[in-house]
Specification:
The protein has 310 residues and is of the alpha+beta class. The protein is 54% helix and 15% strand. The chain has an 8-stranded mixed β-sheet, with helices on both faces. Strands 1-2 form a two-stranded antiparallel ribbon. Strand 8 and strand 9 form a beta hairpin.
Length: 310
């Protein structure tokens, strides 16, 4: 293979850089080849020394930062530092939750709005939930009624209940949070679905526990044995929540978010309400709903489930 003069100069330059060529005389006019083993030692040894120095620096800094952990935790307890912090990415949030679950000794409160949960999320949380319940930690989980129509969420609830956990559902929306031993809470961020905020301020955590307890007291146990009756009750509760939001003039998108439904399913429930009440438009529907006593079901009850409901 023939090389141009420029290509030959580039090749010589590269061979010199990696140590495969060296000057053969003091004047440097003659170049001789070098054994690849010798070149490897000469070229890589300085790089290896740099790597070793960097690793020593990493270990030193790691030790120094680790020594500050205890002081940082003490400052949180003594009120000398911010009682909340943001964890911006999902991987670290999961690691954080796993660690807090492993440290829990008494109680975990979990509220998960938005209807049925993704199967991969439930699978990811299954192991830590099992270990938590088998240690005898009390666990209360709150979903929305629409979670009852998710096979994966229903199966997870059945599994949790069999281990002593308690699961309830509510029609209306509530905040997403996890509260560990009533001392630390993990809540979602307002501007991101990936991160979370960790709250340790005892006053804020106590406020969140009180809010959870109010929702829990008004929620319905998620029955595993009587699915048909359970589902009927859930559909009626969802429609009552939709009716209440229609009366206040909320748009369909907001209603769907509040009750944990897709927009399409929510609009199907609204259409069923309009048909059941004979309303010709949304304005008339709101007026009829505001004038009706929806807590008194009758033969033409617009809140009753239809075969396609859910």
């Amino acid at each position: 293979m023939s090389l141009t003069e420029a290509e030959a100069e580039d090749a010589v330059r590269v061979l010199l850089e990696v140590g495969l060529l060296r000057p053969g005389d003091p004047g440097g006019g003659r170049l001789v080849p070098v054994s690849p083993d010798l070149a490897r030692s000469c070229v890589l040894s300085p790089l290896q020394r740099e790597i070793d120095l960097a690793q020593d620096r990493v270990r030193l800094l790691g030790g120094e930062l680790a020594s500050l952990t205890a002081a940082y935790e003490r400052s949180l307890d003594e009120g000398r530092s911010d009682r909340s912090q943001v964890v911006p990415d999902r991987t670290h949030v999961r690691q954080l939750i796993t660690g807090l679950a492993a440290e829990a000794t008494d109680e975990v409160l979990a509220s998960q709005p938005g209807g049925g949960r993704a199967e991969e999320v439930l699978t990811e949380s299954l192991d830590r939930t099992d270990r938590l319940l088998r240690r005898g930690v009390r666990m209360l989980t709150l979903y929305q009624h629409t979670a009852r129509f998710s096979p994966a969420t229903s199966a997870f609830a059945s599994h949790v209940s069999a281990l002593g956990g308690e699961v309830r559902t509510s029609a209306d929306g509530f905040a997403r949070c996890l509260i560990f031993d009533r001392r630390v809470a993990v809540i979602g961020l307002s501007d991101s679905d990936d991160g979370a905020a960790v709250v340790r301020d005892p006053n804020i955590v106590a406020f969140m526990v009180d809010g959870f307890q109010r929702c829990w007291n008004g929620a319905s146990p998620m029955s595993i044995t009587n699915y048909r009756r359970d589902t009927s009750t859930a559909v009626r509760g969802v429609r009552r929540a939709i009716a209440s939001l229609l009366i206040t003039g909320e748009p369909d998108v907001r209603i769907a978010q509040r009750v944990g439904l897709s927009l399409r399913t929510c609009q199907r429930h609204i259409a069923d309400l309009m048909g059941g009440l004979g309303a010709r438009n949304r304005l008339q529907l709101g007026y009829i709903l505001a004038s009706s006593d929806l807590d008194e079901p009758g033969a033409g009850d617009p809140l009753r489930p239809t075969p396609s409901a859910g």
